[in-house]
Design brief:
By secondary structure, the chain is α/β, with parallel strands linked by helices. The chain is built from 12 helices and 14 strands. It binds pyridoxal-5'-phosphate.
Length: 374
């Protein structure tokens, strides 16, 4: 039986009337550009995260680019990040004029390894860009300590990890994205909080960064046709903001449902393959559920078997960024970052969405179990 990677429509019927009324409200007011729904959603989103400010932007990629520029990243600077991520993370470092520097990842959490980050520091390093991959929190205590010691900015790529949490310093539960100088979020439909199109946001507790972000998303302008600097057209669409305000009220419940599905997967796959281990000081948002095998051939075989049965699956990400043609000019080569090179060859992700049923979990895990016996 077929199982999709995500079921976009499963969460829609219960909210249909409310969402359609809100969207019609925007149509009837015709306040399409930076309408009041955008300001309202920004307030709600900041409050949810415990952040002072949120700025709505057009997508998660713009969120990263604007956060980097607003944090003062300039041409000639270096920003240390993970190579095991979607290209937007590194692309936007280049677009801010800086150089992405790839450090290796942790073999258990697949997120930025603080020990490797320290080895990549140079006098040009200005920021660290940790990625909370699949929804798994990075080791923020260690990364924040490095940043403090070397006076670096920290921009958290929280595109896959909205509603994830981290117990900072062993005593303070913080939403991911609200630990560094900025948190960047994507509302791409398949993320934890999906819009009905593209959307994104940056959160910060810094007054100066906030003012800069608001200007940058709107051509560098705070007062119409007065430009103290150049910016971008990177505004969050008003229709999307209206949808997001409604969906935001359900997102915590959806993350609980994702965590319950993840527990079901872990139980069924015990001893079959490596399943995600969430540290005690973290809440995983399970945007993706990723399993690992002890050899590439086993991974490839399992993936093929699932695909053959109509069970959707995906490798996030098959080629680490330091090995991509787009970054050949940086001189990365096989052997540079052994952990992420081993992980990219042995992982793949299973269907994951809040409404995943016990029956679907059984179909998927039975197929994985069959595959490892083949
Ligand atoms: C989705 C994603 C982005 C980009 O978000 P868009 O809204 O698609 O531009 C950035 N980083 C990571 C890790 C992502 O998963």
């Amino acid at each position: 039986m077929k199982v999709p990677m995500v079921d976009m429509l499963a969460g829609y019927p219960p909210l249909k009337d409310e969402i359609e009324t809100a969207v019609k409200g925007v149509f009837n007011k015709a306040n399409f550009i930076l309408g009041e729904e955008v300001a309202r959603f920004e307030k709600e989103f900041a409050a949810h995260n415990g952040a002072k400010y949120a700025v709505g932007v057009a997508n998660g990629t713009d969120a990263l680019r604007l956060a980097l520029i607003a944090s003062g990243i300039k041409p000639g600077d270096e920003v240390i990040t993970s190579p095991f991520t979607f290209i937007a993370t590194a692309e936007t470092i280049s677009q801010a004029g800086a150089k992405p520097v790839f450090a290796d990842i942790d073999p258990v959490t697949y997120t930025l390894d603080p020990v490797s980050v320290e080895k990549k520091l140079t006098p040009k390093t200005r920021a660290i860009l940790p990625v909370h991959l699949y929804g798994m929190p990075c080791d923020m205590d260690a990364l924040m300590a490095i940043a403090k010691k070397h006076d670096l900015r920290v921009i958290e790529d929280t595109a896959q990890a909205f509603t994830g949490k981290y117990l900072l310093g062993g005593k303070d539960w913080k939403y991911l994205g609200n630990i560094g100088d900025c948190g960047t979020f994507s509302f791409f439909p398949a993320k934890n909080l999906g819009a009905f199109g593209d959307g994104g946001a940056v959160t910060t507790n810094d007054d100066k960064i906030y003012e800069e972000l608001k200007a940058l998303r709107n051509h560098g302008s705070k007062v119409r046709y007065i430009h103290d600097m150049e910016g971008f057209n990177a505004r969050l669409d008003t229709v999307q903001a209206a949808v997001l305000s409604i969906r935001l009220r359900h997102v915590e419940k959806w993350t609980e449902m994702r965590n319950a599905a993840a527990a079901g997967y872990a139980e069924a796959l015990k001893g079959v393959c490596i399943t995600p281990v969430t540290p005690a000081n973290a809440r995983h948002s399970f945007n993706y559920y990723t399993i690992r095998f002890d050899a590439k051939a086993k991974r490839d075989n399992a993936q093929k078997h699932l695909t053959g049965q109509g069970i959707a699956n995906q490798i996030y990400y098959p080629i680490s960024l330091h090995l991509q043609k787009a970054y050949a000019h940086l001189g990365g080569k096989l052997g540079d970052l052994p952990v992420c090179e081993a992980v990219q060859d042995t992982v793949f992700s299973l269907p994951m969405f809040p409404e995943l049923t016990g029956e679907q979990i059984k179909i998927v895990t039975d197929a994985v179990k069959q595959a490892v016996k083949l």
